[in-house]
Amino acid sequence: xxxxxxxxxxxxxxxxxxxxxxxxxxxxxxxxxxxxxxxxxxxxxxxxxxxxxxxxxxxxxxxxxxxxxxxxxxxxxxxxxxxxxxxxxxxxxxxxxxxxxxxxxxxxxxxxxxxxxxxxxxxxxxxxxxxxxxxxxxxxxxxxxxxxxxxxxxxxxxxxxxxxxxxxxxxxxxxxxxxxxxxxxxxxxxxxxxxxxxxxxxxxxxxxxxxxxxxxxxxxxxxxxxxxxxxxxxxxxxxxxxxxxxxxxxxxxxxxxxxxxxxxxxxxxxxxxxxxxxxxxxxxxxxxxxxxxxxxxxxxxxxxxxxxxxxxxxxxxxxxxxxxxxxxxxxxxxxxxxxxxxxxxxxxxxxxxxxxxxxxxxxxxxxxxxxxxxxxxxxxxxxxxxxxxxxxxxxxxxxxxxxxxxxxxxxxxxxxxxxxxxxxxxxxxxxxxxxxxxxxxxxxxxxxxxxxxxxxxxxxxxxxxxxxxxxxxxxxxxxxxxxxxxxxxxxxxxxxxxxxxxxxxxxxxxxxxxxxxxxxxxxxxxxxxxxxxxxxxxxxxxxxxxxxxxxxxxxxxxxxxxxxxxxxxxxxxxxxxxxxxxxxxxxxxxxxxxxxxxxxxxxxxxxxxxxxxxxxxxxxxxxxxxxxxxxxxxxxxxxxxxxxxxxxxxxxxxxxxxxxxxxxxxxxxxxxxxxxxxxxxxxxxxxxxxxxxxxxxxxxxxxxxxxxxxxxxxxxxxxxxxxxxxxxxxxxxxxxxxxxxxxxxxxxxxxxxxxxxxxxxxxxxxxxxxxxxxxxxxxxx
Length: 781
Ligand SMILES: *[C@@H]1O[C@H](CO)[C@@H](O)[C@H](O)[C@H]1NC(C)=O
Ligand SMILES: *[C@@H]1O[C@H](CO)[C@@H](O)[C@H](O)[C@H]1NC(C)=O
Ligand SMILES: *[C@@H]1O[C@H](CO)[C@@H](O)[C@H](O)[C@H]1NC(C)=O
Ligand SMILES: *[C@@H]1O[C@H](CO)[C@@H](O)[C@H](O)[C@H]1NC(C)=O
Ligand SMILES: *[C@@H]1O[C@H](CO)[C@@H](O)[C@H](O)[C@H]1NC(C)=O
Ligand SMILES: *[C@@H]1O[C@H](CO)[C@@H](O)[C@H](O)[C@H]1NC(C)=O
Ligand SMILES: *[C@@H]1O[C@H](CO)[C@@H](O)[C@H](O)[C@H]1NC(C)=O
Ligand SMILES: *[C@@H]1O[C@H](CO)[C@@H](O)[C@H](O)[C@H]1NC(C)=O
Ligand SMILES: *[C@@H]1O[C@H](CO)[C@@H](O)[C@H](O)[C@H]1NC(C)=O
Fold this sequence. Notes:
Bound molecules: 2-acetamido-2-deoxy-beta-D-glucopyranose
Number of strands: 23
Number of helices: 16
CATH topology of the domain at 496-774: Beta-galactosidase, Chain A, domain 5
Oligomer: single chain
């Protein structure tokens, strides 16, 4: 395993590790926390004894709760409840280990897990509710007939009711993650404290969304620290941010009317959420005058426009409320709901009550359906963050304020699978980040995983997320169940096939806990139905090994480019931009033409079913494998037949990518990489070097004329012209590895051999040639 310090030397000049979607990165100003230069690594504070030396007696293999986990209101549902000794030993083992990862990789911001075997701490994911010091107390507010406007009488109402605040200090004292997060939130709030209020910036098609989310992020931190300290300096600082966003600060904030930019309603909704949180969490600190001013501004710029949307008076700003199965619906309904719940009862306009009559049903019919039947997000892996944050904030606020999720968790019976999507779409270095990456995240995180863990009795979701760099924020303090124990990887399959009419994609890896692990993911998936955030990318794949990404994505085009979002139709302007075109993906290009937007791929997948065990040190057995084959004939205009397959070889140490194609037009194999590429003299093999590591790539049984060449990641000569004045974004550092063949019938087999330290050349395998139609788990033995 690469050490922390070695990783610190990764390409310091590299841009944002997650493209423009990086939670800590702002494309114009760099990392949002000036105190944290992007090159520096954030070594995580560790509590407790070094994990590597711990051996705790008495392995605990507690079964996962059989019923939905309801904050432990019923301990009898826990298989462990009859055995407090084993429960407490699991918790003491967990507390002794502390925060598992020893730090984050500075390039990819992923957790670095120490090499350790600890069957007591790294047991099957579970809850151990026998520990009263860690369990949340029971909420005394439990209406028998909940209604959105029958709201609890104490404050706060949103996400963090008073009984949880009261219980929090003792839980922080006895739980390492809560302790670490609390400390980080204080640090973050201290950083924001000394910054001037957020400066107004109108960013074309993304409006003032960055402003709204940055303000929301700050308000959450200030409000948290204010309540934890009773120090009014935090309340005053929150007020300065509120005044600023109301246009009453020391510098101007947008136009005189419509300050929250209803034309891009996400902005309006995120400002509304921020004001709602401030109003509710700091309720006891505000004067009546301040409360009146917050309500006034909130109604003027947020809730009144929201009511207009639902009353059908504002189609132009309210398109997101009708048949939109994407993040817009979640974020807009979520922000309006939080704000309405916050001021309901004090609100004299009627807007709050009116909105609560609309938003919940609307989100059930739209937002809840952003999750496809296998858990995949309807848009992209990055847009999942926005959709689930909106959904989780809204649902959690309704549960705490009004005592019910009102169906938001159950109306889509497969919503609970979305955590599985997030885990499998995330490779050891970064997301399988197909399609658009979305705007900067700021207040948006993956902490919905922690909320869904408790709501759906899926402790592995919280165990996965609590180790991530974005886990430390106020919501986690209240969503996290401190009795969560075990290891998310224990018993988790390495592979998963996501396969239904809306999407077909597969993920495979060699370990869940090693940044150096091999990871390969490939998609078929229809090219329409993604809210215009997809690419023409059937057959696209990413490949991680040796702590870096060898085959990667180019990400978003310029959201402000002419007609970038015009449609998903074949003739859309969107498909003129290189990053969205088929040639901009890691797939086959036929006749230099974009894929057919009506593609209807099918997928076959096989897996040895390998699961990781308790240890973070894991080596799959030599027969452990996985493969996926897509029939992509329908994605092309000029092919008679085309299947693309990907499989792991040699105990998941090597990868074979095979294209069996019969095409009437020219065939071009393309892969985008940040590596430096050197092609052998014969042209059938290439050496890729990146981040101090090496990958050998070889064409097996090369068809006549098949050789590697390299190209720049730019549009091809002969492509249709871009709209006048438009340009493609540059892709600095990216090389396209290509193989070009004339029309014909081929089996194109490309073998990837990561140069693993300690693996002799004689231990690499050369697979036999097997047609994709004959691939099986044992076809390459
Ligand atoms: C939370 O973190 C702050 C800053 O480190 C610390 O002063 C405070 O004591 C912590 N709260 C608890 C309850 O431990
Ligand atoms: C919060 O603080 C931590 C620890 O100082 C830092 O690594 C992280 O970048 C900060 N996050 C934000 C969003 O400022
Ligand atoms: C803050 O004030 C409230 C209300 O007086 C009190 O209940 C709470 O214990 C105080 N918290 C701290 C950290 O002083
Ligand atoms: C901002 O100023 C306007 C005009 O004086 C006032 O009506 C409103 O309440 C103020 N809002 C806030 C949040 O201070
Ligand atoms: C999702 O819910 C279904 C139905 O309750 C259940 O069978 C399944 O195990 C759950 N999946 C996960 C990953 O929690
Ligand atoms: C997105 O969700 C809607 C509603 O469930 C569905 O009709 C549509 O086919 C989905 N799109 C994809 C790509 O799954
Ligand atoms: C190149 O590296 C950047 C930064 O880590 C990443 O965003 C991008 O996806 C990578 N590109 C490819 C083609 O791997
Ligand atoms: C695409 O074709 C449709 C239907 O013919 C037409 O309405 C639309 O304007 C065309 N779009 C572009 C960008 O050419
Ligand atoms: C490729 O497909 C296009 C669109 O269907 C068609 O116009 C063209 O003639 C085809 N070319 C070949 C070489 O088959």
